[in-house]
């Protein structure tokens, strides 16, 4: 029999590999096995690294070690860590960036810059905004932590959507493989969004010309993030959530962080109009001039019913309230007026073939539909969270426009889900509310 090949045994593997009884490659700060399984490797702790380094020096082969002198103890350098190594391990272990986290963030940034940016607002109608979303926003995110985390959250949610519910209607510009399942990326998206809000809350109190573009960009990404949630949480079925108000409350909670966005835009109007987002802000210029009207009689009649209901429910609040601007009447009236503008900019044809042509047209600017969320104002968002019936009904009519943006991944099924959930809540008020939601349900294909 041929002699067995000799091999060196080592007891210097990390604690995790020893417990699992697998071969450790003994390379820190995180060994290959721990990187693969996303484990906290003992090599990443200061004590373990120091002990490992000392052990390696002691057990080194005779050919690679210098004999220790016997008569001069002060000349024993082999047991001392070099100055270049020591500072690295003086930092607390909590500050050490996990290798797996770094890889994930690089993947998400790459995914955003090569793919996810394409689906941002109005990109199909305004090709000049490509540089804004692909270059300016990532560059600006390196200066503002809230924007960086918001960008990573948006990219993670995009991957979660694509890996969970493949659909030929959704943009199919993605290449490459993914590290894990949809649920992993969905969880990471929520984590990064929470991190973004932690720092964004303080920034809202101090918006300046230097950060107003970052605030505006983050607000848009957050609105798209919020819109995408219902379509992902329902599993792509387009029906109401099994938990009452689950999807609606998710989207309203995110909108709550953007309360006052319209005021911020007004205060920073000069800086924003001089910056890279000037093209996006021009969408509502026609609204302020009043040079628009709804040409579809069916749409005009339906939206007029919302105005009649607002007069019936809240007119006294608008006339005699201590603060007319913040009353339900004034808040709903502004939301309805903005909604009429959105419908005027994008008519909803009665013929299905024409409707599909409008949906897929590259010449239609649809960014103002998303802008309605910010322009409607913080008080309207508060009324939605309080489940105000008329505010929910107005919101359901906006969801019809959202359903017409189905070719964007962040809207797929969200409009239908929102209409279904709002209807399920309002229908508890009796047949009169079933009639009031009938038009919205019909437009999104619900019974």
From TrEMBL:
<dbReference type="GO" id="GO:0001228">
    <property type="term" value="F:DNA-binding transcription activator activity, RNA polymerase II-specific"/>
</dbReference>
<feature type="domain" description="Zn(2)-C6 fungal-type">
    <location>
        <begin position="13"/>
        <end position="43"/>
    </location>
</feature>
<dbReference type="GO" id="GO:0003677">
    <property type="term" value="F:DNA binding"/>
</dbReference>
<dbReference type="GO" id="GO:0008270">
    <property type="term" value="F:zinc ion binding"/>
</dbReference>
<dbReference type="InterPro" id="IPR036864">
    <property type="entry name" value="Zn2-C6_fun-type_DNA-bd_sf"/>
</dbReference>
<feature type="compositionally biased region" description="Polar residues">
    <location>
        <begin position="52"/>
        <end position="68"/>
    </location>
</feature>
<keyword id="KW-0804">Transcription</keyword>
<keyword id="KW-0805">Transcription regulation</keyword>
<feature type="region of interest" description="Disordered">
    <location>
        <begin position="52"/>
        <end position="78"/>
    </location>
</feature>
<dbReference type="Pfam" id="PF00172">
    <property type="entry name" value="Zn_clus"/>
</dbReference>
<keyword id="KW-0539">Nucleus</keyword>
<protein>
    <recommendedName>
        <fullName>Zn(2)-C6 fungal-type domain-containing protein</fullName>
    </recommendedName>
</protein>
<keyword id="KW-0238">DNA-binding</keyword>
<dbReference type="InterPro" id="IPR053157">
    <property type="entry name" value="Sterol_Uptake_Regulator"/>
</dbReference>
<dbReference type="InterPro" id="IPR001138">
    <property type="entry name" value="Zn2Cys6_DnaBD"/>
</dbReference>
